[in-house]
Amino acid sequence: MIAAPSHVETPAGPSRSRSASRRRRRVLGLLGCLVGLVAVTILSVAIGSREVSLEEILRAFFDPSATGLAEEAVRARVPRTVLGLLVGAALGLSGAIMQGVTRNPLADPGILGVNTGASLFVVTGIAFFGMTTVTDYIWLALAGAAASAVFVYTVGSLGRGGATPLKLALAGAATTAALSSLVSAIVLPRVDALQVFRFWQIGGIGGATWDAMGTVLPFLAVGAALSLFSARSLDALALGDELATGLGGRIKTARAVAALGGVLLCGAATAVAGPIGFIGLVVPHFARMLVGSDYRWILPYSVGFGGLLLLLADVVGRVVTRPSDIEVGIITALIGAPVFIAVVRRQKLKEL
Questions:
Q1: HEC states along the chain?
Q2: Rounded distance, CA 68 to CA 61, Å?
Q3: For residue range 37-89, what is the model confidence (pLDDT) as tens digits?
Q4: DSSP 266-290
């Protein structure tokens, strides 16, 4: 692994005071994010196609004998809420890892071909092997995400200079285009497969089940652990490969460990909820605007903001076309695209 660059402030009084103040603001920011998560979780349980009162919500949680429609509707929203938090946190963290590994501010699992690789394997399973359950999708999506990530990294590592950010981004874009064409070629002639695939491809958490979450949870846990463990290595990689090597680190190992964590997170989230875009692209930039370039803070902020944004988007999708729902993948695209363009136009993007 790589020795992290020093974030230690000088012992001088003013510098120590500024460091303590910055750390205090960052901790307060995390607490504010936690409060926001609690608030949006309450909204997610309380708001849906069926209106429920506060009394019915309390009965749903504290009175097992209450089996009315309102109580059952509230209980049905619980797994959906938990899945939204898990998927949003996973995509936010995965996006931060991808941007750190490639040192590309526009990198996310979609641009690097990871989502498309997962989609190709899933549509292959649907079209040729009749797979239709989330459990099947999980393994297919993980295999596809891992295969496409390895392929993109191998292609991006060829030639002089190794896996530079530009080569990785170009390899990811080319792979995404090629795999998208393959997905279309497989699914378009097969109407039955297209009907199944299009619901998964939109991206949504409305079909959340505890069994599906239990299947992906180990992958999410391992991916999160590897990603958070890579924070100091990402700080060193941000200085450039030559300087990181000069610090005595092993660049390839550091990138491989971080990328594995990102792929596990993205693959598991995509398998259980479909390819949801913009969370991994937008969230790390908001985190970077608040806490600077220190990945020890960017990663936990990305976890919190990812869960907050995706769950909020899901609540919005339930409200705007009541009593029907709009899948969260459509809402994140509607919210994420203009927000991201606004951020870029205001030149708030930080150099990686």
A1: CCCCCCCCCCCCHHHHHHHHHHHHHHHHHHHHHHHHHHHHHHHHHHCCCCCCCHHHHHHHHHCCCCCCHHHHHHHHHHHHHHHHHHHHHHHHHHHHHHHHHHCCCCCCCCCCCHHHHHHHHHHHHHHHHCCCCHHHHHHHHHHHHHHHHHHHHHHHHCCCCCCCHHHHHHHHHHHHHHHHHHHHHHHCCCHHHHHHHHHHHHCCCCCCCHHHHHHHHHHHHHHHHHHHHCHHHHHHHCCCHHHHHHCCCCHHHHHHHHHHHHHHHHHHHHHHHCCCCCHHHHHHHHHHHHHCCCHHHHHHHHHHHHHHHHHHHHHHHHHCCCCCCCCHHHHHHHHHHHHHHHHHHCCCCCCC
A2: 13
A3: 999 999 998 887 777 888 888 888 887 787 777 888 888 889 999 999 999 99
A4: HHHHHHHH----SHHHHHHHHHHHH
If you search the block for the tokens 């060829």, which residue do you land on? 158
What does pTM read for this prediction? 0.83
CA-nearest of 285, 266, 341 to 100 is 285
Cα–Cα distances (Å) from 321 to 5, 324, 326, 333, in that order, read: 50, 6, 7, 17
**Can you tell me the mean pLDDT for 138-158?**
82
- Residue with more model confidence, 338 or 350: 338
Q: What residue ranges do the domains of the chain occupy? A: 41-344
By the 8 A CB rule, do 162 and 241 touch? Answer: yes
Query: What is the rounded distance in angstroms from the CA atom of residue 300 to the CA atom of residue 196?
Result: 35
DSSP 57: H
Higher pLDDT, 268 or 343: 268
> Per the CATH hierarchy, to which homologous superfamily does domain 41-344 belong?
ABC transporter involved in vitamin B12 uptake, BtuC (1.10.3470.10)
**Degrees, nearest 5: CA angle 236-238-243:** 60
